[in-house]
Each structure stands twice: as C-alpha cells, then as structure tokens.
Amino acid sequence: MEMPLKILMLEDNESDAMMIQHQLTKAGINYTYRLMMTREAYEKALLEFEPDLVLSDNAMPQFSASEALAILQQMQIHIPFILVTGTVSEEFAAGIIKAGADDYLLKDRLIRLPNAIEAALKQKQFEKQQLQDQEQLRLSEEKYRTLVEQASDGIFIADETGKFIIVNSSGCKMSGYTLDELQTRTIYDLVEPESLKKIPFNFQEMMMPQGASSHRQMLRKNGQLVHVEINAKFLSDKRFIAFVRDIGERIIAQDEIRQTNEKLRELTAHLINVREEERKRIGREIHDELGQQLTAIKMDVSWIHKKIPSDAYEPIQAKLKNIITLLDGSNQSIRRILSELRPGVLDDNGLIEALEWQNRQFATTTGIAIHFETTEKELKLPEQAATCIFRVYQEALTNIIRHADATRVNTALKKDNGNVVVTIEDNGKGFDTKKRESKKSFGILGIKERVHAQGGELFITSAPGKGTKMEIRLFY
Fold first, then answer.
1. Backbone φ, ψ for residue 247 (5° rounding)
2. Given a cut of 80, is residue 299 above it in pLDDT?
3. Which residues partner with 245 through β-bridges?
4. Is pLDDT of 354 > 90?
C-alpha cells in the first residue's frame, strides 16, 4: 500500500487551509497533514512529523514564509517548499524562488496545486539523487586519491598529448619533480631522446585491454637515470595511466646474482680442470710406478718359473703359476683404472676415437646395441672442450645403464655453424622433465655445470615411455 504524502501546512487562516485540503482530496492525493501557525511548532513538526513537503502562507502573525524557508535550509532538510498566498508582488515571488522555494501560487488558483506538488516532489527527488551521486563520487574520488597516494608504485596519468595531469607522491619522488612541475611537462621529458629512439612508446599496444609493459630508464630531474618497469594503458576518456615501479635494486640484485653465477662457473671449471689434471697425475704415477713394479715382479717370477726344472716340487710350480696369474689380473685392473681415470685414447687419438672406444666398452659391458654416427674424420678441439664432451658422454651412458631400461642407443657428433653438437638418444622409459627439475638430480646438475663451464648449452628432452634425448652444443 502506498504511504500517504506527509504535508506540513503553515497557515493562520483555517478556511484557507480547508480550501487547500479540498483541492488535494479532489485531485485524489493520498495525504496526511499537520497545520502549524507558530515558529516553535513549525520547528518541532519538522523534526517529529518528518514531512515530505511544506505548503506555506506568506505572512503570518509571528513569522513569514521567508523565515520558514530559511529554517528549513538551516536544518538541511531537503524537501519541497511551496508558497501558497493570497497576494504577492512579482519581486517577492522572484526573490523567494531565488532563495530556494520550489514554486509559488495564489490561493485563487489552487487548481494548479496538485501539479505543482507533483513537479516539486520530482524535482526534489532528482536533486536528492544528484546530491547522493555527488556524495558517492566524492567518497569514490577520496578513496581513489587515498589509494593512489598510498601506492608504492609511481602512478602517472596524462592526457592524449602526453601532458601529465595527475601524479601521486611516489611518482613525484621517483622523478624528482614536484606535482606542479610535472603538470607542466610531458612523458617525453622523463626519457632520454636516444633511448626513446631505441624503445619508442607503444601507444598501439596501450590501446589493447591488457595494456603495454616495458622496461626502460627514467630520466630524473637531476639527470640521473633510474631503471623502471612500466605498465600503461589508455582510459576510456582518451587519457592514459602508467604504473611505474623502480626496479633499480632488482637490477643490481640480478647483476650481483649473474656475477656470482659467473664466479661459481669459473670455480666449477677450475675444479673440473684440477680434477682432470689430478687424474692425469695419478694415472701417470700408477702407470710409471705401480705398473712398472708389477711388470718387473712378473718378469722375475717368470724367470724363476723357467729356471725351476719341470719335475721340481709340484706345489712350488703351482704357486708360481698362481702368482703369475694374479700379476696378470693386477695389470688388467691397473689398465681398467687408468682408462677410467683418463683414457689414453682421448689424449693419443682424439675425441672421435675416444667416443668409439667408449661405445665398444658400453656395448661389451651391457649388451645394449649402440650406434654412433659422424661424418667427421678428425676433430681438433681444445683439450678442455674435448674432455668436457667425453665426460658428459660417459655420464649419459652411465645414466642409461642405471635408469633407462633401454635396448638401443643412438649417438651422433656433427659440426653446426661453429658448434660441435653431440646427441645421445635412447629408447628407454624416459621421465617427466618438470618433475625431475623439482628434485635434486645432482647427476644432471653436474653435467649442466660442466657444459656451462665451457660456455656450452645442454638440452634434455624426455617423456614417460618415450625415451630420452640429450644434446650438447659447444662453440669451437
């Protein structure tokens, strides 16, 4: 059910008040009213009755319509105020309308009252909505300004010519300019001309929904250059907004990490070289000292064996034969240890012969078929590069034995645009490379570091049930 319209009447003539009521009832308006004649009653009714509009006569014994309107405004009650009077001058009517009254009409023309009330209510509702909208806008702008000011990133808003309109305190601090100074400048004043030629502003991408992202150097007021990350996009009103983050500390940290990684790689390369040299030294000592001693012992035992008559004490003959057998086994063990420490074929015959020798060892030990393909007859590489390829090749074959369950291995060596490319591929069970990266796989990590120490690249592709392929690329 529609609520009745609450009307507060200021009228000292009861017959006139009844005429007004009659006109409202005749027009079919559902209303309730209060009739007041004094200032005190009027003020009290405004608070307690909470009227929807005020109908006021012009002159009453104690106060006037102008005073009633002023009271309404002082109390900040936004409802229609309509002057209903017997006679009034045009000057007074214009003045009270200018002061804020919504309408006025003469008592001999009350037929117009329902329409005047309806129009005034609609106008007041419209004004009330406007006030609410303005308040919402004010609160929204206040919240927006608070967020903008509290943002740690610089926020720059510019018009379509690039002239700055709004810049938050972080942006001012970052650029070194005050807000007033920035509002006389454009986006081009914060970039070196030469830098702008190399990396122009991408306005086309800024029109896209995701906006444009870039890294560049901001030119501060004092001439200092600051590394910044920029995310910018156009707004619906053709202005554009840029969120600017100072990444100078990040750049410094990344540079320190890069330098640390380079030092670690240098240390890794040094340790690898030291280890290879130590293997060479140990291999030479074993060959020169232990190998020669075992050979000399075998010669002496063989001499004794030949000098003892064949019909001599049989246990002595058997013991001498056993010693010779043990010495032969020891020599074979020494040759195997020497080949593991540093294959002589790598130093004597080069990388390709060493890889073919390793293939024969692999096939003999495991029974797995291995096919090696190369068009190179002879490949001259620095010793460290050749050692790197051979050791990685060895480690890859060892991993195949331990983990792959393969029945066939294909390997290849070729030259490609100044690089030596070696591939090792098996038909084994493979693995998930992403899961393997999350685990501590020191074997693969060691291979990567060995290759990177030589300035090379390592690529591993694999999938469960589809085997594994390893590719080594070294510049020569």
1. -115, 20
2. yes
3. 229
4. no
Domain boundaries, the chain: 5-141, 151-246, 251-342, 346-475
Let me know: does 342 contact 283? Beta carbons within 8 Å: yes
- DSSP string computed for 203-258: HHHHTSTT-EEEEEEEE-TTS-EEEEEEEEEE-TTS-EEEEEEE-HHHHHHHHHHH
Fold entry, domain 5-141: Rossmann fold (3.40.50)
pLDDT confidence of 53, banded at 50, 70, 90? very high
| 322 φ/ψ angles, rounded to the nearest 5 degrees | -65, -40
> Is the CB of residue 36 less than 8 Å from the CB of residue 45?
yes
Task: Work out whether the CA dihedral 70, 71, 77, 79 comes out positive or negative.
Answer: negative
The pLDDT tens digits of the residues spanning 316-330 come to 777 878 888 888 888
Give 166's strand partners.
Answer: 157
- Enter the tokens of residue 393: 């090749």
> Which single residue is written with the structure tokens 């030291």?
274
Global model pTM greater than 0.70 = no
pLDDT of 257:
87
Tokens of 460: 């591993």
Q: How far apart are CA 232 and CA 129, in angstroms?
A: 35
Residue with tokens 């020169």: 288
Rounded Cα gap, residues 292 and 43, in angstroms: 125
| Interior angle at CA 291, CA 285 and CA 293, nearest 5 | 105
Examine the pLDDT at 86 and tell me if it is beyond 90.
Answer: no
Average pLDDT over residues 3-7: 91
**How many CB atoms neighbour CB 203 within 10 A?**
13
What does the block give as tokens for 219? Answer: 């030119």
CATH architecture assigned to 346-475: 2-Layer Sandwich (3.30)
Q: Kindly indicate the confidence band of residue 332, based on its pLDDT and cuts at 50, 70 and 90.
A: confident
Distance (Å, rounded) from C-alpha 365 to C-alpha 425?
18
| CATH for the 151-246 domain, from 3.30.360.10, 2.40.30.10, 3.40.350.10, 3.30.450.20 | 3.30.450.20
Residue with tokens 């104690």: 62
Tokens of 342: 């540093």
